[in-house]
Amino acid sequence: MRGVCEMLKARTLAEWEAEHSPVEAFTPDRPESPPLDWQWERRAVKWYALVVLLLACPVLWQVREEHQRQVFVRREQQRKAMLTLELQPPPTVARGPAERRSGGGSAGTWVVTGAGDATYNGTYRKRGALNGQPAYTNGSKWLWYIGGHWLLTEEPGVADPDAPYGSSPGELPGNPWVPLLPYRPPS
């Protein structure tokens, strides 16, 4: 039975091809096109997809990095805004009482009041010189001069990034004072 079915199938296919033969016959000098290789096309699509994926990864990485940078910048701006609020109001510096020295002379002092960070408040006494100007301390903080401005810092000579307060240009008392950024609050 199987043989008969195959024979009918072959005959039917041959009849169909005879009835539906193209009008233009192939000439011997015209080669037939090769059969399609679907295996090769599937592999090519896979390779194209892989190349697109490899090219897309760096772009996606850059987009992610830019987003993280923007988040970092926003956080840094918020942190600086909070520190500025924390340091408000800036201090006021005024002449303090003259102190007698153990050689018969007297030395001027400066009184810092109203700083947002209260550890900078107090009386500052002369303790040496820095940058051609006297440097003053209240025991833990320093009042000193650099480049036309007076600074209040935790250490003398360390202006950036540890200078929380700076004066307007000129001589002491240098009012008005302003909070400088960045500032690291005391730990």
SSE inventory with pairings:
Layout: H1 2-19, H2 38-87, E1 92-95, E2 99-100, E3 106-107, E4 109-113, E5 122-130, E6 133-137, E7 142-146, E8 149-153, E9 165-167, E10 177-179
Antiparallel strand pairs: 1-4, 2-3, 4-5, 5-6, 6-7, 7-8, 8-9, 9-10
Please describe what this structure looks like.
The protein has helices at residues 2-19, 38-87, and strands spanning 92-95, 99-100, 106-107, 109-113, 122-130, 133-137, 142-146, 149-153, 165-167, 177-179. By secondary structure, the chain is α+β, with helices and mostly antiparallel strands. Strand 2 (99-100) and strand 3 form a beta hairpin.
Class from helix and strand fractions:
alpha+beta
Computed CA radius of gyration, to the nearest angstrom: 43 Å
Mean pLDDT level: 77
Q: What's the arrangement of strands in the largest beta sheet?
A: 1-4-5-6-7-8-9-10
Low confidence ranges: 183-187
Q: Would you list the SSEs in sequence order as H and E?
A: HHEEEEEEEEEE
Cα shape? rod-shaped
| Count of β-strands | 10
Oligomer: single chain
Helix count, DSSP H or I runs of 4 or more residues: 2
How many strands, what sense, and barrel or not for the largest sheet? 8 strands, antiparallel
Span between termini: 97 Å
Query: What share of residues are in beta strands?
Result: 15-25%
Summed up:
With 187 residues, the protein is of the alpha+beta class.
Provide tags for this entry.
10 strands, 23% strand, eight-stranded antiparallel sheet, single chain, 187 residues, alpha+beta, two-stranded antiparallel sheet, disordered C terminus, 36% helix
